[in-house]
Amino acid sequence: MTGLPTDEVLVSIEGKVGRLRLNRPKAIHALTLGMCEAMTEALLAWRADPAIELVMIDHAPSPDGDPKTSRGFCAGGDVRAICESGRGDGVAARHFFFTEYRLNHLLFVYAKPIVAFMDGITMGGGVGISQPARYRIATERTRFAMPETGIGLFPDVGGGWYLSRLPGRVGAYLALTGGRLDGAECQALGLATHFMASEKLDELKAGLIAAPGDAQALLERAAETPPPAAIEARRGDVDRLFASETCEGVLAALAADGSEWAREQRAILATKSPQACKVSLRIVLDGADTAFFAEEMAREYAVAARVCQRNDFIEGVRALLVDKDNAPRWDPQTLEGVSDHMIDQIFAPMEAGEEWTPLAL
Question: Rounded to whole angstroms, how far apart are CA atoms 304 and 23?
Fold first, then answer.
């Protein structure tokens, strides 16, 4: 995990627009330490530059230049590198989280308008750099998810803040199952501010560069009415079956329901790390009562700093991303084996001098 200068994010100024283009297409633009550092450096410079009126965050096209073959905006963070560090002393992993979360917070408090283009896969770290933006554009290609329980992690990068503020129990459902949302669903839930066809994005971007001061009007004119959001028809089931504040209670409700959808969700949860599920549900529950985003990030950093060195994250990355045998050996293997004491240890505040802090702005 290197912090050296990188071409994995293209930083440019076009007219009065500062532009950050993720440029790691083979990894679906998964964030590295260098990418986080480069974006932070640019944002800090533009913050004080009166010539910059707007910031755009998108991804560079695929190597063949065809936008239709580009798989997405950002698939997350470089979890393989984080896992490699977690196997050892974890220093590099903690440094990555510390730096990434500072970027997330900087975007959250940034005074100048930011437009993020959630075109294609927008997961994990991609959520962290798009959700703070004032304008969040979804398309028919958008696939939004926080699938971390499948690799022994949890919805971080502010996931506890964003998911806890979704209507009903949608946040708990997404955090536990890693369920995917399309662009229409993202707009219906407030995760996207606008919806439009992906083929119109280049025209919109050109318009924003030509007249950044007219961003709101340009976005309203370009926006389209999305198709019906499937999550809306499912809201009753989600709110009822994911109502419990314990993972055991959720599983019991799913088992008692007996519907096909409930059986599907129970089967999905059976593949997830029990430890990660309990951590993720608590992240969402705690996030609902958190008053400041910096407080959320400090909590998530303490959790990430510990989880990245525990068995389930290392084993989850091995099983799903390295060996790809899809047979992770979770420890503990059951929800009952994950004690309240274990979760309290994971959530304990960091030692003095080791806690996460935002940039001094």
Answer: 26
Q: Which of 78, 156, 185, 286 is catalytic?
A: 156
Say whether pTM exceeds 0.85.
Answer: yes
The single residue of 34, 120, 124, 125 carrying the catalytic annotation is 125
Could you confirm whether 182 is annotated as catalytic?
A: no
Task: Check if the beta carbon of residue 297 is closer than 8 Å to that of residue 358.
Answer: yes
Sign of CA dihedral 43, 67, 125, 142: positive
Query: Nearest CA to 281 among 247, 231, 329?
Result: 247
Question: Percent of the chain at pLDDT above 90?
Answer: 94
Pairing of strands 114-118, 135-138: parallel
Active-site entry in 148, 182, 185, 296? 148
Q: What are the residues whose beta carbons fall under 8 Å from the beta carbon of 218, sequence distance 6 or more?
A: 204, 207, 208, 211
Q: How far apart are CA 5 and CA 261, in angstroms?
A: 47
Q: What six digits make up the tokens of 142? A: 């958008």
Per residue in 270-293, pLDDT tens? 999 999 999 999 999 999 999 999
Tell me if residue 354 is catalytic.
Answer: no
Contact 312, 263 (CB under 8 A): no
SS3 222: helix
Active-site residue flag, 78: no
Q: Which residue's entry shows tokens 């700093």? A: 305
CA quadruple 195, 197, 198, 200: dihedral, nearest 10: -110
**Amino acid symbol at 359:** L
Is 148 tagged catalytic?
yes
